[in-house]
Amino acid sequence: MTVKLSSRTEGDTTVVVLEGEINSTTSGGLQAQLLPFVGEGSRLLIDLSGVSYVSSAGLRTLLIVHRRAQQLRTGVILVGLSEEVRFVMSATGFLDFFEIEDDLDAARERTGR
Amino acid sequence: MMAIDSGAASAEHTAGQERCKARCAGQPLAAKAASGLRIPADLDSLDLVARFVLELGRQGRLSDSQTYRLRLAADELATNIVMHGYRGASGGICVDGGVEADRVWVRFHDDAPAFDPRTGMKAPDLEVPLGERSVGGLGVFLALTAVDSFDYELVAGRNVSILAIHRSEHG
Fold first, then answer.
1. Residues B77/B102/B19/B27 CA torsion (nearest 10 deg)
2. Residue A113 lies in a domain
């Protein structure tokens, strides 16, 4: 099982799209790929709509991304959380610490304000 | 139906149950057990556990959300056994499971040092900001939270955990 990452820039926002599963075998590699996108003078938006599974290892990766973003005084927005991923983040208190939007359009609208 | 059971028939029934239990090492009588697997205690083997549980969820006609929770709990427990049970030492994990009328269950046996996940886990302090939280320790908490029942026993020095999701009547 794998997780794939692709990225693009939209204005002052870096959009990273993840696809696959984030578990104990994929999270380490993902973390190394993801961290360089934090704080390149812009906000980071992570699209999780293609992520079908997140375990605590995935939460750990999100936690490390969150910390880096805090250090660099930038924001991380998560979009496209499935009901199950939301359950995992909610049970562990992670939901409250990220900006969460339903999808990319909702996030763009918010950015545009 | 209970009323017409003679005492002798009940005794025979109980004896049959005991024989089955002995043969199946404690497996509940009504279980339609899927053949289990034995994996080496390393992270690369965890995909096998995931596949096993996903198939069990399909057989038990669990909803996507129920299957996700059972798989999550199994994944977290297995990861914990590999990382914190055996701590890199070689060892094995036996996984089996079954579908019953009212539940789908997955059972883990391992020979790592005794660890009861129910008492050994620490719930995350939801009041502490994420930036100040410790990086680990969420896995066992998630495993316990995700399933409908989580049983643990130390049997002859082996850790035995049984995770179950209740099936809905129409499931």
1. -10
2. no
User: H helices then E strands: how many in chain A?
Assistant: 4, 5
Report CA-CA distances (Å) from B44 to A25, A83, B15, B92, B136. 7, 27, 42, 13, 20
Output the pLDDT for position A111.
Answer: 67
- The single-letter DSSP state of residue B82 is I
User: What is the count of structural domains for chain A?
Assistant: 1
Architecture of domain B32-166: 2-Layer Sandwich (3.30)
CB contact under 8 A, B46 and A56: no
Q: Measure the CA–CA gap between B80 and B86, rounded to whole angstroms.
A: 9
Note whether A48 and A18 are within 8 A (CB): yes
Rounded Cα–Cα distance for residues A22 and A27 (Å) = 5
Best of B125, B130, B147 to disrupt the A interface (most A CBs within 10 Å) is B130
A97 part of contact set with chain B, CB < 8 Å? yes
Nearest to B131 among A24, A25, A70 (CB): A70
- Average pLDDT of the segment spanning B98-102: 96
φ and ψ at A44, to 5 degrees?
A: -110, 125
Q: Measured between CB atoms, does A95 come within 8 Å of chain B?
A: no
d(CA B137, CA B79): 11
Q: Rounded mean pLDDT of chain B?
A: 81
Tens-digit pLDDT profile for residues A55-92: 999 999 999 999 999 999 998 999 999 999 999 999 99
pLDDT at B113 over 80: yes
- Return the domain boundaries, chain B: 32-166
Q: A44: domain range?
A: 3-108
Q: Give yes or no for residue A33 having a pLDDT over 50.
A: yes
- What's the ipTM? 0.90
